[in-house]
Amino acid sequence: MHGYELRKRLYTVLGAFRTLSYGSLYPCLQDLLADGLIVEEHDEPADDDARSGTAPTGRSRAGRRSKKVYRLTADGKERLQDLLGEGGPAAWEDDGFGVHFAFFGQTRADVRLRILEGRRSRLEERMEAIRAAFTRTRERVDRYTLELHRHGLESVEREVRWLNELIASEREAGREASREPGREPGREAGAAGGQSHISDNEESS
Amino acid sequence: MHGYELRKRLYTVLGAFRTLSYGSLYPCLQDLLADGLIVEEHDEPADDDARSGTAPTGRSRAGRRSKKVYRLTADGKERLQDLLGEGGPAAWEDDGFGVHFAFFGQTRADVRLRILEGRRSRLEERMEAIRAAFTRTRERVDRYTLELHRHGLESVEREVRWLNELIASEREAGREASREPGREPGREAGAAGGQSHISDNEESS
DNA sequence: TTCGTCATGTAATGGGTTACATGATTAC
DNA sequence: GTAATCATGTAACCCATTACATGACGAA
């Protein structure tokens, strides 16, 4: 898709986390282009006789013709897979986790599990740190600070419970997948829930 | 206190949110100094005969003598009060809210209430946005993205409930304070909970 | 024809981090 | 005396945002 569209979609997908300004998005696309990870297409949708002078009669002529449409190259897809396959420490930091999670649909099952578990242990470390600070400073902070800590701690605890559910769900899916040997392990969608394929750049190379 | 100490305390107070590197802290202190909002003291704690050659025998000689100890000037305190009194939109953004909340102990009750309500309405806007995106994209995103949205939405809902409790608590405290006319309104500590005074730069001017 | 939205881009700017360098003080 | 920690500071850099500038297109 093109930049403008990408940004809006980025917003709806991980909007709660962060959105990206055009000032960083467009230069980034240029870099990706220079690195050969994406190619630029011009999306002139069959210029058979589209040049007819008649006004487009409102809503027809579906998508407004847009400037630059980008598409991942083979190199780009490989790079993406490398990125998604990493699952290292960067993937369980606050920043990285959201993005990695948003791409779980394209991520190998074993990597998904590693990321979820890594994230959980990160949060458990943080919980420990907060709890320690809690007992250490008990009487030395005012009640608002205490309340802030309490709420922060509960937030972390809640996310850990969420991760526990996801991990259990992933493990369950793994067991089911291994019972029926019809497919290679580590590539299916996951646990509960029906249709799970993402839009998946359609007829691309 | 001095920079090193400040940073550690910053970490324990709003550590869950963000910590500050020395690379930004020290230049910042220099700017504050240049603006006359803080002064530098050298904290030579009574050099009566502390120069005795004997080793300090371990744990005595309480605070380690530190390099530069800063203290707020009258101007600095005024500026702080201005900052704390603002309670405008900046105070209910993700960034600003944590800091403002951490200073609630020094903040006027009416400002506290305004900040809490502003924060709540910000979150309610966000909830609406997420819910809208939810129904709009219902069938077009994979289950992981959906799960991310669901969890994000619940996080926001939870924070709203937390704010509701805090607001109720503040209102209750306000009513109690107005019943006993012993003090000026809008300066007491708040609702439930015992000791609430913060360290409050001790015998300072 | 003009306005609003879609769409892309550039330059200035800002706020922070990392990495580095230094020195004082305490513990062994 | 040497290592670890406390404590301060500087410089390079990273990365994103803001503000600005441009242009195409659809609707009034």
What would you note in describing this structure?
The structure is a homodimer of 205-residue chains. Chain A has 205 residues and is mainly alpha-helical. In chain A, 55% of the residues lie in helices and 4% in strands. Chain A is built from 6 helices and 2 strands; from the N terminus they run H-H-E-E-H-H-H-H. Chain A has a two-stranded antiparallel ribbon. In chain A, helix 5 runs antiparallel to helix 6 (143-179). The longest helix of chain A is centred in the last third of the chain and has 37 residues, at 143-179. Chain A is flat. Chains A and B meet through helix 1, helix 4, helix 5 and helix 6 of A and helix 1, helix 4, helix 5 and helix 6 of B. Chain A binds a DNA duplex (28 and 28 nucleotides) through residues 2-5, 20-24, 26-27, 29-30, 55-56, 58, 64-68.
Q: What average pLDDT do the residues of chain A reach?
A: 78
Number of helices, where a helix is a run of at least 4 consecutive DSSP H or I residues of chain A: 6
DSSP strand (E) fraction of chain A? under 5%
Low-confidence stretches of chain A: 45-64, 186-205
